[in-house]
Amino acid sequence: MMRGKLWVRLAPFLSKRYVSSSSSPSCSAIQPWLFVGLGNPGEKYQSTRHNVGFDMIDAFADSQNISLTKNHFKALFGMVDGVPVLLAKPQTYINLSGESAGALAAYYKLPLHRVVVAYDDTDLPCGVLRLQPKGGYGRHNGLSG
Length: 145
Known about the structure:
Layout: H1 2-15, E1 33-37, H2 52-63, E2 70-72, E3 75-79, E4 85-90, H3 97-107, E5 115-118
Parallel strand pairs: 1-4, 1-5
Antiparallel strand pairs: 2-3, 3-4
Helix pairs in contact: 1-2
């Protein structure tokens, strides 16, 4: 099942930096993760490769019984109970998704290493998932500066 495979692939990546260090050695603060799925709103784009980021967020939200009905910083938004994970689907269309994702990261004071962005990469074969800790935007306007 796709949902189970996705979580298995993401779990090791998340656990590496789940607890952030604090100034006090006896206390460590848990900092949230922001998962942003890129796509375009509307029926025209549903179930297309271009909306794989939306599909990933929907699959994770469904597996955790999270409703993505709250509109926060131009994104459909939800939180995972008990775990500091924020899920977002920017509703700005993919090329302007930084308006939403950047505002969410700034509002929650998240460093970039706590933001995970899921999107289609036309340089990869369909169905291939690549996780990388950092990188450029390539040819994807939704990730450009």
